[in-house]
Amino acid sequence: MTEVVQHDLKDADGDFRVFVLDDTEQANPACAAVFGTPRDGCLVRIQSRCLYGEIFGSTNCDCRYQLEKAIEEIKQHSGVLIYLDQEGRGAGLVTKARGYRICQDTGVDTFAAYAAMERKADSRSYGDAVALLKQLELKEVTLLTNNPGKLDGLDVGGLKVRHRPLVMPEPGEHTVAYLVAKRDNQEHMLSIAARLRWRVIRFAGSRWFSRRRAALRKAAAGPAQPAGTRERQEQAA
User: Fold this and answer.
1) According to the model, what pLDDT value does residue 50 have?
2) CA–CA dist 14, 167 (Å, integer)
3) What is the pLDDT of residue 117?
4) DSSP labels, 207-222
5) Which of 20, 89, 123, 158 is the most buried (most CB within 10 A)?
6) pLDDT tens column, 160-196
7) Catalytic pick among 45, 89, 109, 122
8) Is residue 122 flagged as an active site residue?
């Protein structure tokens, strides 16, 4: 049986339990916040650490939204929030920061940035999440996620997994670009609202680039000449 340290905490809504893995050499091992009395089929969220979204409030990703929405639903129905210290899709904060810098310098998405650094697009693992859920004697869970990789990770670990999407209803421009990149590279689910928002952004962008190209062509051609000027210049020549 997996060794854990268990204790209680309080929040604005009352008491909940905390389980921290104790048979690992990690400085910040996987942990679980348990709300209510979870039973087989209960709601579960596996959250990978995201300093930028969860703490700094960045809208370049949807991590903070997913965390807050998941906690809200889990508290209503009883369930488990598992938190994994796997910043930057498992690559760490420094790699994540370098990836963002590449994105800003070149305009590529984070997956292309990781490839440019010869790093795996996603090096996370979910064995510790499985261990915590089994410690809670759960054999079947309803996973709050848009990531098929998490579904596979629990399934491989021997748990029966149901799926409930956790999609942002109206993402902003920066967030939706990130969501589209995850859809294209990791088959993440994308809400109808997000798909429509992305089409609007792409359409507006294509019109902006069209106007920009027209302006550049006009500038390259030089200042416009009055009517008849060209004919007089040719006659004088």
Assistant:
1) 96
2) 27
3) 96
4) HHHHHHHHHHHHHHH-
5) 89
6) 999 988 876 666 666 676 667 667 766 555 554 444 4
7) 122
8) yes
What is the per-residue pLDDT for 162?
92
Flag residues of the chain having pLDDT under 70: 1, 168-175, 177-179, 181-182, 185-237
For 4-86+124-221, CATH number out of 3.30.300.30, 1.10.10.10, 3.40.50.1220, 3.40.50.10990 equals: 3.40.50.10990
Catalytic residue status for 105: no
CB 97, CB 119: distance < 8 Å: no
Q: CA 200 to CA 206: how far, in whole Å?
A: 10
Helix axis angle, 127-135 to 148-156, nearest 10°? 60
Q: Which of 124, 128, 152, 164 is catalytic?
A: 124
DSSP assignment letter at 225: P
Domain positions in the chain: 4-86+124-221
Residue the block writes with tokens 């748990």: 159
pTM: 0.75
Supply 106's token pair. Answer: 């070149």
Here the contacts of 25-32 (C-beta below 8 Å, separation 24 or greater) are 26/85, 28/85, 29/85, 29/128, 30/82, 30/83, 30/84, 30/85, 30/128, 30/129, 30/131, 30/132, 31/82, 31/83, 31/132, 32/80, 32/81, 32/82, 32/83, 32/132, 32/133, 32/136
Nearest to 147 by CA among 194, 86, 188: 188
